[in-house]
Model the fold of this input.
Amino acid sequence: MNNPESSDRGSWGSKIAFIFAASGSAIGLGSIWRFPLFVGLNGGAAFVFSYLLAVFFIGFTVMLAELTIGRHTRKNPVGAFNFIKPHTPWKLVGYMGVVTGVFILSYYSIIAGWAAGYFYKTITGAFRGQVSWNNSAAIFTKFAANPLEVLICLFIIIGLTSYVISKGVKGGIERWSKILMPVLFVLIIILAVRAVTLPGAGPGLSFYLKPDFSDFNLKVILFAIGQAFFSLSLGMGTMMTYGSYISKKDNLVSSAGWVCLSTTLIAILAGIIIFPTLFNTLQLTPDKFKQEFEVSTGLMFQVFPIIISKMPGGYFFGILFFALLLIAALTSTISMLEVPTAYLVDERKWSRTKAATLIGIVSFLLGIPSALSSGGVKFLTKFNYMIKMDLVFGNIMLAVGGLLISLFLVHTWKVKNALKEISHGNSRFWLKGLWVFDIKFLVPIAVIIILIFIKTLAG
Done:
């Protein structure tokens, strides 16, 4: 059997480096953009409650499974499946993860590009003075519908992502993540404090944190599970790839726990920023919000300029915030590009630069329709192309990936082998019984329910 190591693969310099990089994979737009959007679309606090359960029982379970397979094999998803069970169709699951990651990168980079565009707009003073909801919404609509601007932003994001990946694990991913993620965390806390002190913030907090279980239905649960997979970068091999760079001395259980905790905390804080500000600006009540307000994919970009405009020194703070939001978005796009790059480095023996450049070009081309689907091209906008892409790849394919990974671990690699790998760096696995039950039964059942009710999810 071939040596799992490759001279171009690299490894994490420390456990904290992995935690920052893995958290950065999700703490970008997965938590700050997508989570509040789905809260607004799915009943507020009922969705938050469902999401927390999904992260604890399903997200943590699948993350630990991916990290364990990755560290054991020291390979990308395709190589990992083939390493454990050579010359079988299981490696197709790895290919599916690679393809899913590229497609998610293609449309996710559009949102990251919006962050880049808003960084520029903040510098040029677009949000100076008091910004109303109508003004902010108009600015976003005009920007997202401009084909030239969004394609330039897409090109910038893909280019920066490819550059960082070409520099390797320590020199690229680790270096950027360790410096900028803690700063973003501090800024998120400051914004959250400002949001809850706005006049009339109470109704927004009530909508967000006080569950109304009349809103609790199958669709809420399905989207919560899908968001857990998306926000934790599960089901497409990202964590398997990141796990392949982890030292045998590190505790996989605590590593997975810290990533889940930090990602969830940022998501919760993002909602605390969004909804009090939104309700304050529009003078909404929770019932009025549910009945009349249409949640937009640009929700975050419409709300943040308002809160920044109301802060002392908002101009300079806004520049810093959108710069760091851009970096947070890049930590997510970096993790997505790393999976196919690792495959080409490991299996095809390509250089990192060549692999990152090729996948970057493919991702840019695949992202063009999504870039033009927010007003740039009429039929793509009417079809909700980017929303459809997110449904298929950001919900369904990730869930299918998580299902197949759990089935592979349980029925092919075997739980006893996984537990043996987990024991390295961790003498006592306190949640072993719960994790074994979840990986054997809960995860497969939950994902199968999602697949059965795909039409409900799409509706």
Q: What stands out?
A: The chain has one domain: 15-458. Residues 15-458 form a domain with the Amino acid/polyamine transporter I fold (CATH 1.20.1740). Residues 344 and 350 are 6 Å apart (CA to CA). The two ends are 48 Å apart (CA to CA).
